[in-house]
Specification:
This protein has 80 residues and is of the alpha+beta class. It has one domain. Helices cover 24% and strands 10% of the residues. It is built from two helices and two strands, in the order H-E-H-E. A two-stranded parallel ribbon has the order 1-2. The radius of gyration is 13 Å and the shape is globular. It comes from Rotaria magnacalcarata.
Amino acid sequence: SEYYKNPEELRRHWSKIPIDTDILLTHGPPHSILDISSNTYHLGCKELLKQVSTVIQPKLHLFGHVHRGYGQLKNEPEFG
């Protein structure tokens, strides 16, 4: 489980995801994205958040695990 690995192990794990991934399916969420527990703690993975928000940027990321954090978010592209 990603919750028991140190940050370096997590970085190595998530870096194996191909950069050109359009659809990503993971068991758990990235940190701070639909990841609030019943005790209002963030359960998501910070290293996964870094990878999907800066490196991979998939068009669709599906995940579960956190029952209370159900729903969907749409991230619009930014044009500068």
